[in-house]
Write a structure and sequence with these properties.
465 residues, alpha/beta, Rossmann fold, six-stranded parallel beta sheet, 17 helices, globular, CDP-glycerol glycerophosphotransferase family protein, Glycerophosphate_synth, TagF_C
Length: 465
């Protein structure tokens, strides 16, 4: 029997972590699939991993695509705001730019499109217009020729949010090749980040399935498969675990100290993030002066290129140990900073050997509760907050945080004067969010977090059958 040929499509680098560096490929091959990576990134899967790949060398998009895509997102958010009578959708919008003639013209054109297409019927027309623009590009014809040559049975797109994927998926659909989009992240659906239209959608959980149906009425229930995400599978791989002594020796940590992980955020989500690290360092310093022996492992956000933490780290270098994610920068864009397989092992052991994690609204709460470790979320304003700087408090009002089964699914620090006491309670075993956090993880990531790769290949098999 001929093997079914599946193109695993990387429109950008965000899917590499889930679908190149996990056991996803091995599971697919064990299930009898011929897997070829359709690679639109600058990372060579052939050279680095010895995977079969077809490289996409034409990266052109229609010149108007960024404007139309921004208008589509704005219209969808406006419709959600009106439909659900909820102002949260306005907070997902990035402000228009008016500095320079080019930005002024782009912003005015975007506003005109929003006005012209400001309805659910308008959204359908706007998506059709985007598709028409992308079918006119050289990339569309280039991808169509590749598909005609290699004749895959199905295209599995590793993220639904990349505009670079539109023309390639249109080429597949026009050739009658089934297309699937994986919804990449737990917060993407309410934020109007579904850029592509495919024949099927794979989502993490029943929650995300309900959201797709809620926000995208053109998608039918039979098009959606609940699969889970490979993102968390490595946390269940005991082969990645190091002993505490070995891990501490590898990273020159003090075996006599207990470490708290500070997981950094990107500048958009938490523009004053360095000051929360400073608050933690001051709390730890105070506790150490009273007889504790604590340190901080600072793990930065992999796509944060700023130097904003440097002064805090230098001031508290006796407390803070920097363990950078093992990611590789292969370009200048945020989605061209790519993970490496080695980072799975590092993250596993940071979770395993830290006492708990602290951050601003990060999904690392799930990484840590898998390891039975609590999480503190900072939720108070910094005195450095000024007009034009985003208040982190709005993060916790986002739709994806409404999935929490209770406010105890994370430990919220709402006043920095409480931080020292919260740390003490956690270390003494008097305070934890692990039980509720695990319930939350199940709601968001589904019932079978160890089976996501298997579930995805089963769904692909069912589609092709």
């Amino acid at each position: 029997m001929n093997k079914k040929k599946v193109f695993v499509f990387f429109p950008d680098g965000v899917g590499l972590r889930n679908f190149a560096f996990t056991d996803f490929k091995n599971v697919g091959e064990q299930n009898g699939f011929d897997i070829i990576y359709w690679n639109n990134t600058i990372f060579s899967l052939k050279d680095n991993l010895d995977f079969n790949e077809v490289k996409i060398e034409d990266h052109s998009v229609h010149p108007l695509l960024p404007i139309y895509s921004r208008a589509r997102k704005r219209v969808e958010l406006n419709i959600s705001q009106k439909k659900f009578k909820d102002d949260v959708y306005a907070t997902y919008k990035f402000p228009f730019k008016y500095r320079g003639l080019k930005n002024i013209l782009k912003s005015l054109y975007t506003k005109l499109l929003i006005w012209l297409y400001s309805s659910e019927k308008g959204i359908v027309k706007l998506r059709k217009k985007i598709n028409k623009l992308e079918r006119s590009t050289s990339k569309y014809h280039y991808c169509k020729a590749q598909l005609n040559k290699h004749k895959p049975d199905l295209i599995f797109c590793t993220t639904q949010r990349a505009t670079q994927s539109i023309s390639a998926l249109l080429a597949a659909k026009d050739l009658g090749i089934p297309t699937v989009a994986f919804v990449y992240s737990w917060d993407n659906i309410p934020k109007a980040m579904q850029v592509v239209e495919t024949d099927y959608y794979f989502v993490w959980s029943d929650l995300m399935k309900a959201q797709v149906l809620q926000y995208y009425p053109f998608v039918k229930e039979e098009q959606i498969f609940v699969t889970g995400t490979p993102q968390f599978e490595p946390h269940y791989n005991l082969n990645l675990k190091q002993s505490r002594a070995a891990f501490f020796e590898t990273y020159n940590l003090d075996v006599n100290k207990k470490y708290i992980c500070y997981s950094g955020d990107d500048e958009t989500t938490s523009p004053l993030d360095q000051f929360y690290l400073e608050d933690l360092a001051k709390a730890v310093s105070s506790l150490n002066s009273k007889g504790a022996n604590l340190g901080i492992i600072y793990r930065k956000c992999p796509v944060d290129f700023t130097s904003r933490y440097n002064a805090v780290i230098e001031t508290h270098k006796d407390i803070i140990e920097v363990l950078d994610p093992i990611w590789k920068q292969v370009g200048n864009q945020w989605n061209e900073v790519l993970p490496t397989p080695e980072d799975f092992k590092l993250l596993y052991n940071v979770c395993e050997h830290s006492e708990f994690v602290t951050n601003v609204c990060s999904s690392t709460v799930f990484d840590f509760v898998i390891h039975n470790k609590p999480c503190i979320y900072y939720n108070y304003e910094q005195p450095q907050l000024r007009k034009g700087i985003r208040d982190i408090g709005q993060n916790y009002k986002y739709v994806h945080f409404r999935s929490m089964p209770s406010q105890q699914a994370a430990i919220f620090c709402t006043n920095k004067n409480d931080l020292e006491d919260l740390i003490t309670q956690i270390l003494e075993g008097q305070l934890s969010n692990v039980d509720e956090g695990r319930k939350w993880f199940k709601i968001v990531a589904g019932n079978t977090p160890t089976m996501a790769s298997t579930n995805i290949w089963k769904a692909i098999h069912d589609i092709l059958s």
